[in-house]
Structure formats: C-alpha cells, structure tokens
Amino acid sequence: MARDVTYSSYLDLDRILAAQHPASGAHDEMLFIIVHQTSELWLKLCLHELIAARDLVEGDNLRPAFKMLSRVARAQGQLIQSWDVLSTMTPHDYSRIRPHLGSSSGFQSAQYRLMEFLLGGRNPDMIAIHEATPEMAERLRAEMNRPSLYDEAVRLLARRGLAVPEAVLERDTSEPWTPSSEVEATWSRIYRDPEEYWDLYELAEKLVDLEYHFQRWRFGHLKTVERIIGFKRGTGGTPGVPYLEGVLKQAFFPELLSVRTAI
C-alpha cells in the first residue's frame, strides 16, 4: 500500500547507501567512489531521456522531445560539475587508491559508451571492452544496428521535404557518420530562415547543446586527469591524457558546427 512507502524504501536507500566499499583505507576513496556512482546514475537518466527523445523525433513529435533534450543538457551540467568535486583530490590522495583499482577504468563505463553510440559516435571495436557483461555488449550491438539520434533528425528533414541524399538516408548506421555537404546545405537553409522551419531550427539547437555539454564533460575529464595523474597511463590501459585529447576532436553532429561557417 502507498501509505506504507517511506522516503527510504521508495528510493531504496538501504542498498544505495550500502554500495560504497572502499578498499584502500584512504579518506578520499569515498569521494572517488561516490563521484563515479552518481555519474552513472546521471548517465542512466540521460539514456532514459535520449532514447525516448529519439523515438519522438522519429515520429515527428518534436515538442515533448525538446523537453527531454533540455533535461539531458541539465543533467550533463551535473556530470560536468562532478569533475570540480573530484579535482579536490591531490596526486598523493589518488596514489593511495590507485593500486586497489586493478584494471578498472571509467573507459569501461558501458552507459557512457551507449550514450556515445546513441548520439552517433560509433566504433564497433569498443564493444569488445564490454564482453565481460554480455547483456550490455548485446545492448551496444543492438544500438549499433539502429539509427542514431542524429540519423533520425536528418531523416526527419527528408520527410519534411528538405533535400537529403539517398546515400545518407540509406547509409549503414553501424558506421560513424560521414560529413555531408548536402546535409550541411539543408541545415543552412533552416538556419537562414528559422521562422519557416522553427521547430527544425530548435531541434538543431537542442542537438548543438548536447554536443556542447558532452565536449565540456570530456574537457573536464581531461583536465581532472591531467591535474591528478599528469601524463601517466590510465588504469584501463589507455594512454590517459593523450587519449582524452583525441576524443575531444570527435564531433557527433559535424554539419551543425560547420553550418555556422557556411551561413
């Protein structure tokens, strides 16, 4: 019965607050664990909203999609601010924790990878990292085989009668997006006449917000890692800072950035 529900039982706080298991005895390990656990919760919300928003874009029902996309941008703000909290950890603090992490790494976050895939940043090689959890590897493979959020946005342009090449509409969605001058020209038409295409113009700006905040999150990650471990290799075997610098150059919606130069 609803009257028997308490704040603690509804939120399952017994399990949530018992899910921190420091291994090092270092004071700052609690900070390290909680920042990463809460980030995974925010990612879960982002995925919840983005999957629903993509379905709405596919169905040309943009108004509720805008609310969801705005919520993701706000949640991304929380993810970005988490780096500010984690950056209070000094190199000495982290050195006491690192030996207890083994090969675990944020690079192995399946939810982060799924969000990348959903936005269109797809690399099939990344699925292999998650084979230890077959249900998540299968979820990533399923995502690879359906249109990304950006694919659906571009397909919507075509359904509205705007020019999109057939090669773009029929492309293999498991492959990374290839920038298209024709798609850029269509977005340019929308940006030059927002009154005519207001909801598509707003959709474009919602997508730009997502990319902007995602890149801010990546940059915050880069600078926090740089501040705490310098240029050491990451625990998961990545090059660390050089790897993070590389992903900063990857764009999800390239035409929505290049269109700014075009107009």
List keywords for this structure.
single chain, 263 residues, mainly alpha
Radius of gyration: 20 Å
Structural class: mainly alpha
Bin the helical content: 55-70%
* % residues in beta strands: under 5%
Count of helices? 13
Structure description:
With 263 residues, the protein is mostly helical. It has 13 helices and no strands. Helix 3 runs antiparallel to helix 4, helix 6 packs parallel to helix 7 and helix 11 packs antiparallel against helix 12. The model has no long low-confidence stretch (mean pLDDT 93).
Summarize the structure.
The protein is an all-alpha fold and 263 residues long.
SSE order and pairing:
Elements: H1 7-11, H2 13-17, H3 29-58, H4 62-86, H5 91-97, H6 110-119, H7 134-144, H8 149-159, H9 166-169, H10 181-192, H11 198-229, H12 241-247, H13 254-262
